[in-house]
Design a protein that fits this description.
This is ABC transporter ATP-binding protein. With about 280 residues, the protein is an alpha/beta fold. The chain contains nine helices and 13 strands. The chain has two domains: about 220 residues, 3-Layer(aba) Sandwich (Rossmann fold), CATH 3.40.50; about 50 residues. Strand 4 and strand 5 form a beta hairpin. The structure holds adenosine-5'-triphosphate.
Length: about 280
């Protein structure tokens, strides 16, 4: 039984079509990454899944709750962190923020839970510092702690890895992996794909549609190579499968190619070509 069920969902903003007839199911325990170019509809889809936006048509259920009709009940069971929006109290401390959100959700033992999260996210030493004085990395961790204060079964995260230094990013990703191992379903909108777990499911969006949906590992294992050379003064460039590389180089040298250069594709290059 899927934990998220999306059927034929569309959303427009005036003349802009943000989502076109989206169908998607997410199973409990999945680590889902939604990628795609700017304006492709990622945030709109995430907000619809959390009940923050109402679709123009179609049906969405999360944990069996209809996101339009039962959003209040749904909110008690999902965690949401949107890095592009201000959802922390900057004039309060980290601890005070967590206590407030714990109170909103009616969490028993909110203080204990808050301290455990602050400890786990290495924020315990700054728990009494005002959030306005936090670094970006600290704020992202606090945002994550806030989204977890009521022990949700599923986490919806938008761009929380953006603009982080490598250390903070690794810390957050490994925490997400730990949560996922403990059974929490993760749905993460992210441009950053390289440090994500290879058992993640990658969904790529373009122009309001899902154009690709496959295991991230299938892309990490994709070994295409770009070969550049100069033949008779003319530059050539071709993309070949890694397994054909020797053959291609041999062929190039046979026709007198010079300056042969080999560039291995990374995941971004592959996605850029797909997009
Ligand atoms: N509240 C809104 N009012 C008007 N247009 C909107 C609104 N929200 C989104 N859009 C438009 O809908 C389209 C999809 O936006 P969305 O934010 O979902 O894309 P995205 O893939 O998350 O982009 P980004 O990577 O830039 O965050 C864009 O053209 C955007 O300008």
């Amino acid at each position: 039984m899927p934990i998220v069920k999306i059927r034929n969902v569309s959303k427009r903003f005036g003349d802009v079509v943000a989502l076109r007839n989206i169908d998607l199911e997410i199973e409990q325990g999945e680590f889902v990454v939604i990628a795609g170019e700017n304006g492709s509809g990622k945030s709109t889809l995430l907000k619809i899944m959390t009940g923050l936006l109402i679709p123009d048509n179609g049906e969405v259920t999360v944990l069996g709750f209809d996101v339009v009709e039962e959003w209040k009940e749904l909110a008690k069971h999902i965690g949401v962190a949107l890095a592009n929006e201000r959802s922390l109290y900057w004039k309060l401390t980290g601890m005070e923020n967590l206590e407030i959100f714990g109170g909103i959700y009616g969490v028993r033992d909110a203080k204990k839970k808050a301290l455990a999260l602050l400890e786990r996210l290495d924020l315990i030493d700054v728990k009494d510092m005002l959030v306005e004085n936090y670094s970006t990395g600290m704020r992202r961790k606090l945002l994550l702690a806030k989204s977890l204060i009521h022990s949700p079964k599923i986490l919806f995260l938008d761009e929380i890895l953006n603009g982080l230094d490598p250390k903070s990013m690794i810390e957050i990703v490994s925490f997400l992996e730990e949560l996922n191992r403990d059974g929490i379903t993760i749905v993460l909108v992210s441009h950053i794909l390289h440090s994500l777990p290879s058992n993640s499911r990658l969904i790529v969006m373009k122009d309001g549609k899902i154009i690709l949906d496959d295991a991230l590992r299938n892309f990490k294992n994709m070994k295409t190579v770009k070969v550049k050379a100069v033949i008779g003064g003319e530059k050539i460039e071709k993309t070949v499968d890694e397994s054909e590389l020797t053959k291609v180089i041999k062929e190039l040298t046979e026709v007198g190619a010079e300056n042969i250069m080999i560039e291995r594709d990374d995941l971004y290059a592959i996605l850029r070509r797909i997009l």
